[in-house]
Every structure is written in structure tokens, then in C-alpha cells.
Design goal:
Length: 279
């Protein structure tokens, strides 16, 4: 049996996307998140797919890689049809990913795979080592919400200096390019929570199919422990309901202290994703 591989830049054509979705439907696990399914057809996304077809036109494996925040940092993942594993197709897809990164002058890369022994063995064989893990959490949308007195959530409106100050205090200087990306990229809405006019928390919300994703979520360190984080998450769940979404999703590193905040807010684990870097 002959297998042909090709590299396709985003946005992908509808036939390729349909083939990819059909392949994903054969798995018990949901690999759509690590494979960045929502951006396959987005013209503004920097990324590409490596696809493996048989001579009969059947897609039996593919990999995707995305420059998520436009800084030449790519995250990639891959899947192979269960009937075609152990035929070096995964390794061929990884080689295609590496070639695509070289073409695009990627400055760094991470492999993102749902945690399991088979994926770990595959990545180790390619010369990768585990870097860190994130837990994907989810909670149902919320029909109603009551914010604390004096608290309001509004969309970003040129409060750049305040926002930068909060994010630097909550994270570090490296978050500023992420902030710029969230402000400039279509489909990413930056929201601010204020108490009596003072900025106390922020989050970027991204609508994808039946879910609302929360990212770049931060409460100013001086304002933590006052319930603002819980209130912001409840407000996000209500916004998801208003937008007709079924759930709110987010990722958090397994060793992040904020994990307790999310579980207290009702979020439950869905998947653990391991991120691997080339040794």
C-alpha cells in the first residue's frame, strides 16, 4: 500500500477538513482541542497540516501545527487511524511537521498530546522530553449571575496601561506579547472586571462552536482572595449562556495554584495534555 503525504497551509479546503473530522470521529478520545480544530479554516491563523492519504483517497493520519500567538512559536499534534499504526506513519507526519517548521522559520515548538503511554513512547522515540502538563477543565453555562456590589465587567476600551500593569503583576513581562495578540486578533475578546472603577481582574474569551474558552485570566495579586476570580468565572458562564454556548472551557498547568480556584468554581477535569519539547 502506498501512502502520500502533503503539507497544506491554513485555511484548509472543505474536503480536507471533512476528511479530518471523519477520522477524528473514529476515536473514543476527543483530539480536536490538541489538533486546533477551530482554526483549520481560519485565514488569519498561522499554521499548517500534514495529511497522509492512501492511493484510494482515504485519510489515515494527519498532524497540525499552529503559531498560536504569532510569535513563531508552534504547537503541534498528530493522530493516526488505529488500523494503520506501527507502520511509521506517525514518524512520517512528525517529519512533515519538522519540515514545515523549518520552512516557516519557527523559533520554538512544543508537541501537545493527550496524556497516555502510547503518545509518550512515540514522542520519546522522536527525541522529545516532557516539559509540563495542563488540565483541560469544563463547566456548564450559567443562566443567571449576580455580581458583587460595585463590580462590573466591561469589554476592553483603550485601558491599555491599566491592563498591562495588572498582567505584569499577575504574571511577568513575557505576558505582554500575549496581551497584544489577544487585543489584535479577531475573535478574541478582552474583558475587564472593575470594582468601583478600579481594575481588579481580566480574561480573554474566545467563542468556539458550543463552548466559550477562557484564557489570559488574571486577578491582581493585591485583590486576590476577595471573590473576584469566582465572580468573573460565574460571569463568563453566564456570557456563554447568552451566546448560546453549552459550556465554558479553560486550560491550567497541573502545578498552578489557580487550579483550586477553578474547581471551587465548578470546573471539572476533561483531559490532561502533556507538552513535549525537542531535546
Amino acid at each position: 500500500m502506498n501512502i502520500s503525504l502533503s503539507i497544506e497551509s491554513f485555511p484548509l479546503d472543505s474536503q480536507t477538513i471533512n476528511d479530518m473530522k471523519k477520522l477524528l470521529a473514529t476515536f473514543q478520545k476527543d483530539y480536536s482541542v490538541v489538533l486546533q480544530e477551530p482554526v483549520w479554516d481560519q485565514p488569519h491563523t498561522r499554521g499548517f497540516a500534514v495529511v497522509a492519504y492512501t492511493d484510494e483517497g482515504e485519510l489515515i493520519g494527519f498532524a497540525t501545527s499552529v503559531d498560536i500567538i504569532g510569535l513563531h512559536h508552534y504547537e503541534w499534534s498528530a493522530v493516526v487511524h488505529p488500523d494503520y499504526r506501527r507502520q511509521s506513519i506517525g514518524s512520517a507526519l512528525a517529519e512533515g511537521i519538522h519540515h514545515g517548521h523549518t520552512q516557516r522559520e519557527a523559533e520554538s515548538e512544543l508537541a501537545a498530546f493527550i496524556e497516555d503511554q502510547e503518545a509518550a513512547g512515540f514522542l520519546a522515540s522522536l527525541g522529545y522530553s516532557e516539559d509540563f502538563k495542563e488540565i483541560q477543565l469544563g463547566v456548564a453555562a450559567l443562566e443567571t449571575v449576580d455580581l458583587p456590589e460595585g463590580v462590573a465587567v466591561t469589554q476592553f476600551n483603550e485601558e491599555r496601561e491599566e491592563l498591562e500593569s495588572l498582567l505584569r503583576a499577575a504574571f511577568d513581562e513575557e505576558v505582554i506579547p500575549v496581551m497584544a495578540h489577544n487585543l489584535e486578533e479577531a475573535g478574541r475578546d478582552v474583558w475587564l472586571m472593575k470594582k468601583d472603577g478600579k481594575l481588579v481582574a481580566t480574561a480573554t474569551l474566545v467563542a468556539e462552536e458550543d463552548a466559550l474558552w477562557v484564557t489570559a485570566f488574571a486577578v491582581h495579586p493585591e485583590e486576590q482572595g476577595k471573590g473576584y476570580g469566582q465572580a468573573f468565572l460565574a460571569w463568563s458562564r453566564n456570557l456563554a449562556h447568552q451566546k448560546g454556548k453549552q459550556q465554558v472551557l479553560l486550560d491550567v498547568e497541573t502545578d498552578n495554584n489557580a487550579l483550586g480556584v477553578y474547581t471551587k468554581a465548578g470546573f471539572q477535569p476533561i483531559n490532561t495534555v502533556a507538552y513535549w519539547k525537542r531535546v
